[in-house]
Amino acid sequence: MKLPFARRDYIVERLLRADAPAVALLHREDFVRPWSAAEFADLIDQTPVFGFAARQVGQKGLLAGFVLARLAAGEAEILSVAVSRANRREGLGRELMEAVMRELHAERASHLLLEVDETNLAAVGLYRKLGFGQVGRRPGYYAGRDGAPATGALVMRRDLR
């Protein structure tokens, strides 16, 4: 018998170019200016860019979440991360970020940077739990949806060594 709040089973695996259309579809859920499948494919093809996809077991092609990162000269940044609205509050954001940090640790990266909308309290809380600290703020960085005012971005950093 399945419990009403039981955690679903997911697999986190390397993000591939073939995932670009699904990534773009998921990105569209939360970003005012979503990136296209072609933009994601171009990023995934770049040597310093890597990422991970979370899929519900048995759901080929559909993504529950993704993270895309770039590593250059020992410094890393999160380019984009998203979890499907239907799959939130199940620990996927944490699993995806931990996959990136494991990869960066193996590559001996010095630190990881990211930007997050200051109004996205769930994401800010997750990043703080993962050891990120605020190192800057960019006012009016994210365009508002449907005429809403722009919001600021928090620049956050976690040292990896």
Structure notes:
This protein is of the alpha+beta class and 161 residues long. It has one domain (10-159): 3-Layer(aba) Sandwich (Aminopeptidase), CATH 3.40.630. Helices cover 26% and strands 35% of the residues. It has a 7-stranded mixed β-sheet, sandwiched between helices. Helix 1 (20-28) crosses helix 2. The N and C termini lie far apart (44 Å).
SSE map:
Elements lengths: L9 E5 L5 H9 L8 H9 L3 E8 L8 E8 L2 E9 L8 H15 L4 E7 L3 H9 L3 E10 L8 E9 L2
Parallel strand pairs: 4-5
Antiparallel strand pairs: 1-2, 2-3, 3-4, 5-7, 6-7
Q: In summary, what is this structure?
A:
The chain is of the alpha+beta class and 161 residues long. The protein has four helices and seven strands.
Shape from CA axes?
A: globular
Annotated CATH topology: Aminopeptidase
CATH superfamily: Gcn5-related N-acetyltransferase (GNAT)
**Unreliable spans:** 1-6
**Could you tell me the radius of gyration in angstroms?**
16 Å
Quickly give the CATH architecture: 3-Layer(aba) Sandwich
Number of DSSP-assigned strands: 7
User: What is the CATH class name?
Assistant: Alpha Beta
